[in-house]
Structures are given as C-alpha cells and as structure tokens.
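Q: Hi! First time doing this. I have a protein sequence and I read that you can turn it into a structure. Is that right? Here it is:
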Amino acid sequence: MSQNTNNEQNNGGDNNKVVKQFNSNMEKFAALMGSPAQIKIQTKVKKDSVSDMISDLFKEENEAIIAKTKEDIKNLIKAKVSFDKELQAQEKILETLKINKMKEFNAKAVAVFGQIEGIDSMTTVYSNALKEATEARTEVEKEDTNEA
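A: Yes, that's right. Below is the predicted 3D structure, encoded as structure tokens:
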C-alpha cells in the first residue's frame, strides 16, 4: 500500500511539473502572439525580429490559403467544363436515341394507317361491288318486267 502511495505522489509530482511547464510555455506563446515587449524570456533572436517573424508567418499562411483557393477554383472551373462537355455528349446521344425511336414509331404508324386505309378501300370496293350487283339485279328485274 505504501508503494502505491509513493507512485501516486511521484506521478502527482510529475503531473504538476508537466502542468507548470505547459502554463509557462502558454505564457511565452501568448507573448509571442502579442507584442514582443511582453516577452520575459531571454532569446537569441531580437525582440523586434520576433514580431517580424510572426507577421511573416501570418503572411505566408494567408498566401498559402490564397494559393490553395486559387487551385480549388481552377479545379472547380475544370470540373464545370468537363461537366458541360459530358452533358453535351449525353444530350447528343439522347437526341439520336429520340430520333431513332421516332423513326420506329413512324414506321409502325405508317403500317397501321396503311392497314386502316386498306380497310377503308376494301369497304369502298365491297360497297361499290354490292351497289353494282344491286343495280344490275334491279335492271334485270326491270327487263323481266318489261318483257312480260
């Protein structure tokens, strides 16, 4: 039990050191991000240079973001051009398919309408034949009546 207590105390001491070091580093970092006058540490870099380095870092990050955004916009434009070309090709295929289907329909329609016209002409032929037969019969009957 006393060994566990010693380990916990040692770990607690180590943890306290880590927390103190972290807090110290955060203060230094905050000082770097603020003004160089707030830096309370000795550095090999002049305090004015630190401010310039921070400004350069922000400038570089900004330039990197702008370059990436330009690249993304360029890729977006390329994607739109590719989309337009593919859409145009697919619309052409669709138009060809549409025309071919219209041709198929027209061929079927012509055949059906031809059959209908055939029925109409056949009906006319039958009607005319029946009319002629009826007229011929009527004439024969008139002749028979006139002879008698």
